[in-house]
Amino acid sequence: MKHITIDNLEHIPESATFQDLRYLHGTGQSKTSIGAYGRKHSDYRFGAQTEIGDIEISVWEAAMHRLIRNSGEEALYQALLAWVEADTPWLHTKRERELYALELHSARIFELPEWVAKQEFEENHMSKRD
Q: Is 101 left (phi over 0), alpha (psi -120 to 50) or beta?
């Protein structure tokens, strides 16, 4: 795992794989700057720690969508998103659900035989996409 910060999609190679972009954990960084008249301005950067570095969350999201599209897995992502919407009531916003579906997609959760929801996902969500 590299300890670099990536804040631009152009810094993520087109050849990046799901393993490269796998969401390991969230990151956060407080940024404070001093503007005009000595006023402090604070901001917070949310990121995703991956094998290739700490990627700003919206950049990671764009990179994942690019990889999903280039891999021809849009239907798989939509099925995973439908599962997340139906089975994760603790996620309250559309954005939370979309990011969680991307996290699961990056981990290739649907390929793991030990995933407890694998059968339900395949029967109720994948069959609708075929």
A: alpha
